[in-house]
Amino acid sequence: MNDISPELRMILSTIREFVQEEIIPLEPLLLNHEYNPLMAQLQEKRDKAHSLGLWLPQIPQEYGGMGLTLVEHGRVSEILGRSLLGHYVFNCQAPDAGNMEILIEHGTPEQKETYLMPLLRGEIRSCFSMTEPENPGSNPTWMSTKAVKEGSDYVITGHKWFSTAADGATFAIVMAITNPTAAKHERASQIIVPTAVPGFRLVRNTSVMGERGMGWASHGEIMYDGVRVPQTNLLGPEGAGFAIAQERLGPGRIHHCMRWIGICERAFDLMCAHAVRREVAPGRPLAEQQTIQNWVAESRAEINAARLMVLDAAYKIDAQGQYAARDEVSLIKFYVAGVLQRVLDRALQAHGALGMTDETPIAYWYRHERAARIYDGPDEVHKRSVARRILQRYA
Ligand SMILES: Cc1cc2nc3c(=O)[nH]c(=O)nc-3n(C[C@H](O)[C@H](O)[C@H](O)COP(=O)(O)OP(=O)(O)OC[C@H]3O[C@@H](n4cnc5c(N)ncnc54)[C@H](O)[C@@H]3O)c2cc1C
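# flavin-adenine dinucleotide complex -> structure
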């Protein structure tokens, strides 16, 4: 697990310094909702990351990326996760990262030219529009959004929400039913919808724990009201929407889990630094209290265990493919999400009232990363499917 090559070690050290020196100082702008100055400064940092050759760590070199393996990108993702803004600066933020991967894999030459290349260059953003308020996202084979063929077009009608980063996105990849009478896993397709077409309406950025956010840091509710796009906007084969979505999720879960570990490490550092500094009586630092010591020890153990589990899953995907690693991927999805909640909770509690403010990033993560147990498959669904597969081996 410690077989980091000298080249990767150098990359990680450069990125760590970049995150610490250039990105973390911008966090107060996000925490104070000063989005416009934030976006201007982030653009400068993106240009700098690009010029340093640290752009698109997860993307093959022939597409202008760093060409890292999943394990290597996992290591990078952990360091980027230390900041609220890290992934965005290096153009490997969700949902664009997943959309890039499926466009590389399934896009036609024309789709790549029109949508993928500007996304890779960081000129535009995108969103992924699958979940619907009226239907359970945990059962993605059940949805109401339809795409009906008319002439050479698809006409799309439906209602989506939690399309992350829809605000300001140039296109959405939309999951819609194209083959209603097919087997349930073969009914939906993925279709590229430019957000400027008539009938596309961003209703609002949904308020999440009191924050609507803006731009890439938001979750949009969208109406697709008879949106008409050419059938050439179909991504992959018709009816393959569910299979492509599954393909997108395997590496995506490694990226998320390593990002969560980066969050844990930063929260852990903040907790420890606060505990040794804050005195509960003259000359008596918080760090002397056994409860705090327990939190430090438990958090350290859980973060270390989580990292090893995620790297193990990433090695397996790199070596044997996603299907072989589906148990490991389900295990890390709920295990690391749980570690994240516990570490953030302890770090917040150790800071007292300060933990509830936005003077540190802990409260922002505490609000927004509660969702880690819900998106990319709720914990309960992963536990159920991995347990059923394990039990089958005993039947
Ligand atoms: C911050 C955030 C970002 C998101 N980004 C996107 C995005 O970019 N694009 C997109 O399309 N969607 C996105 N989503 C939506 C996400 O994918 C769904 O919320 C998720 O799939 C769960 O669907 P649901 O919310 O409809 O919950 P439901 O399916 O209604 O489930 C509700 C709860 O029921 C329980 N449950 C469900 N099934 C089972 C089961 N089989 N066994 C036991 N318990 C079960 C779970 O506890 C679950 O949390 C995002 C969500 C959040 C919170």
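# post-check
The chain has a mean pLDDT of 96.
The radius of gyration is 21 Å.
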